[in-house]
Amino acid sequence: MSKIYETVIGLEVHVELATKTKIFCGCSTAFGGAPNTHTCPVCTGMPGSLPVLNRQVVEYAMAVGIATNCSITQYCKFDRKNYFYPDNPQNYQISQLYLPICRNGGVEIETAAGKKIIGIHEIHMEEDAGKLVHDEWEDVSIVDYNRSGVPLIEIVSEPDMRSAEEVIAYLEKLRMIIQYLGASDCKLNEGSMRADVNLSVREAGAKKFGTRTEMKNLNSFKAIARAIEGERARQIELLEAGKKIVQETRRWDDNKESSHAMRSKEDAQDYRYFPEPDLVPIVISDEWIAKVKANQPELRTEKLERYQREFDLPKYDAEIITGHKKFADLFEAATELCGKPKKVSNWIMVETMRLLKENNMDPEDIRFSPVNLAKLINLADSGSITNTVAKEVFELIFKDDIDPEKYVEEKGLKTVNDEGALRETVQKILAENPQSVEDYHNGKEKAIGFLVGQTMKAMKGKANPALVNQILKELL
């Protein structure tokens, strides 16, 4: 009988913070930009240049720590992590080893198996490295230092997760908290949220952890789930064959759906950490913590309750709307403008989510304004346009954020409420469809639906459906 194995997973999640400037200098943190244009002597590691700490980085780190139930280290400092790599210009990274800013927290996740607390060992601040670009054609690697010095927090979990499902639930919870705080946009595709997966397997019931491997290069939740399944299977196969698992860092290749070894795993002492001599320790007062706490925005749990109470939204709708900060912001702004919360919620949940799926986009990629959504809802609600026209116009709002009022006016899309014109069209439709008229008179109620459809078609979808129904019944 084959053995039953348990997977043990811990995560190191790197999050780029949403500051305008880097952690130790005044260079821009904007994503993109021509290579090596967001740089200066500090973030390119020039001799004699000195770092100056960005206060906003400390506040964002504290905000994330408070929201994830961590205790704040009121006397914390930076350390040098020494290693040589071409994208690391100083040959060291300024990080925190001995006294990280946040410790001993946790977040609650919910999966099919129920609720569970995932412990957070620590959150520390550090600077990001540059980016190596491999040019296969020229067979060289070139370095872009724009990302060097971009502020990061690293959230180190306890090894509390047991499946890919729990890992994704934990990451989604972290992403939601951080986005609600405004501390980062957490875009995995732009690298502003990155997760390294530490995974080991052990026989079910065993107390001792197995040998773990660390997996890097994971830039989507789907890739993370596949990498976990792939690495779990690889380790079990080795154990079943009586082989040893080597502690190492592995790189996941999502195209090949397999991983390969990068390097044997170093321990902390290999980095020769020592206190950063160019930065003074950070002393965090009770008042500073209280101020950051007081500035914390409304997080998802409070929003969820308020939407049901204040806007009378069903729980299901409120859960979907609050599931993404972008949805919540859009919902609140559009509702304030048109005063129709249920209608706003429907447009987000049905048409917006459909178009996001069709265009393979995330809610963060929404570009249209709440103003134009509110205008469209008012047009449809007042009967100025039909539902069919409203859906067509919304597609253009979604794509190019057009002004629906101007567009409807310019294209002559307003609902036809002219009874004379409608009566004429209905009479024509009845004359062309004697069979349907006969069916209706023989008690087949459905026949009227066909006649309404034909009339709407003849009016290019611009007729008032209620008026069409009324005239049809009268003439029949």
From TrEMBL:
<dbReference type="GO" id="GO:0016740">
    <property type="term" value="F:transferase activity"/>
</dbReference>
<dbReference type="GO" id="GO:0070681">
    <property type="term" value="P:glutaminyl-tRNAGln biosynthesis via transamidation"/>
</dbReference>
<protein>
    <recommendedName>
        <fullName>Aspartyl/glutamyl-tRNA(Asn/Gln) amidotransferase subunit B</fullName>
        <ecNumber>6.3.5.-</ecNumber>
    </recommendedName>
</protein>
<dbReference type="InterPro" id="IPR042114">
    <property type="entry name" value="GatB_C_1"/>
</dbReference>
<dbReference type="GO" id="GO:0050566">
    <property type="term" value="F:asparaginyl-tRNA synthase (glutamine-hydrolyzing) activity"/>
</dbReference>
<dbReference type="InterPro" id="IPR023168">
    <property type="entry name" value="GatB_Yqey_C_2"/>
</dbReference>
<dbReference type="GO" id="GO:0005524">
    <property type="term" value="F:ATP binding"/>
</dbReference>
<dbReference type="InterPro" id="IPR014746">
    <property type="entry name" value="Gln_synth/guanido_kin_cat_dom"/>
</dbReference>
<dbReference type="InterPro" id="IPR017958">
    <property type="entry name" value="Gln-tRNA_amidoTrfase_suB_CS"/>
</dbReference>
<comment type="function">
    <text>Allows the formation of correctly charged Asn-tRNA(Asn) or Gln-tRNA(Gln) through the transamidation of misacylated Asp-tRNA(Asn) or Glu-tRNA(Gln) in organisms which lack either or both of asparaginyl-tRNA or glutaminyl-tRNA synthetases. The reaction takes place in the presence of glutamine and ATP through an activated phospho-Asp-tRNA(Asn) or phospho-Glu-tRNA(Gln).</text>
</comment>
<keyword id="KW-0808">Transferase</keyword>
<keyword id="KW-0648">Protein biosynthesis</keyword>
<comment type="similarity">
    <text>Belongs to the GatB/GatE family. GatB subfamily.</text>
</comment>
<keyword id="KW-0436">Ligase</keyword>
<dbReference type="InterPro" id="IPR004413">
    <property type="entry name" value="GatB"/>
</dbReference>
<dbReference type="InterPro" id="IPR018027">
    <property type="entry name" value="Asn/Gln_amidotransferase"/>
</dbReference>
<feature type="domain" description="Asn/Gln amidotransferase">
    <location>
        <begin position="329"/>
        <end position="476"/>
    </location>
</feature>
<dbReference type="Pfam" id="PF02934">
    <property type="entry name" value="GatB_N"/>
</dbReference>
<dbReference type="GO" id="GO:0006412">
    <property type="term" value="P:translation"/>
</dbReference>
<keyword id="KW-0067">ATP-binding</keyword>
<dbReference type="InterPro" id="IPR003789">
    <property type="entry name" value="Asn/Gln_tRNA_amidoTrase-B-like"/>
</dbReference>
<comment type="subunit">
    <text>Heterotrimer of A, B and C subunits.</text>
</comment>
<dbReference type="Pfam" id="PF02637">
    <property type="entry name" value="GatB_Yqey"/>
</dbReference>
<dbReference type="InterPro" id="IPR006075">
    <property type="entry name" value="Asn/Gln-tRNA_Trfase_suB/E_cat"/>
</dbReference>
<dbReference type="GO" id="GO:0050567">
    <property type="term" value="F:glutaminyl-tRNA synthase (glutamine-hydrolyzing) activity"/>
</dbReference>
<keyword id="KW-0547">Nucleotide-binding</keyword>
<dbReference type="InterPro" id="IPR017959">
    <property type="entry name" value="Asn/Gln-tRNA_amidoTrfase_suB/E"/>
</dbReference>
